Amino acid sequence: MMRRLQWCLLLLALGWCSMAWSQDAAVAGVDRFEAERQRIEAVRSQKLAELEVEDEACLSKFAVASCQEAVAARRRKMLAELKRQEIKVNAAQHRQKGAEQLQHNAEKAAEHAAHEAELQDKPDRKTQEDRQKEQDSKVLDHKNQAQPRTAAPTKKSTSALDAPQIEKSREAYADKLNELEKRRQERDKNLKEKTSPSAPLPVPP
Questions:
Q1: Does residue 157 lie in a domain region?
Q2: Kind and range of the H or E element at 8?
Q3: Which residue in 14, 36, 12, 11 sits closest to 23, CA to CA?
Q4: 77-95 burial by CB neighbour count: b if 16+ within 10 A, else e?
Q5: What is the mean pLDDT of the chain?
Q6: Would the pTM of this model clear 0.90, i.e. be above it?
């Protein structure tokens, strides 16, 4: 029995040390949810040690069984309450992480929207510059298109001035054709004369 009492006292000491450590950890900047879970664990260890002492004390009473049943009931109730607290802490931590993630997503979305707006503004400025360039280009095209029209009559007049030269060239070409034709006729005539039969020999007396 003395050994069990020593074990219970050791559990109590460990519970107090764990509680003190959890408080120091919270001060040192440990996550508050983790600190709360450590507090619950310290309370659990402390209460279990106290109930263990009460359970040992039941052995010295007349109604040992009923006393131990009462201690066991308090133990179950205590453990259920601490478990409920742990679930509550975990749920709060989960909600906080969800809210932090939503905030992070919202910040990212805002940055993305600002970036998109900046990109949309830049093309607008470029479009205005492009429109001005297009307008200047159209004016230049109109000027270039007007110049050939004015130059066209000059080209036609040049062609008219060259007409006598063209006519001379045609006459020269026709003369060459006539000369070639005459040469061909002479050649054909010479060929006929060469191929014609020679005069008959005189008949002997």
A1: no
A2: helix 2-27
A3: 36
A4: ebeeebeebeeebeeebee
A5: 76
A6: no
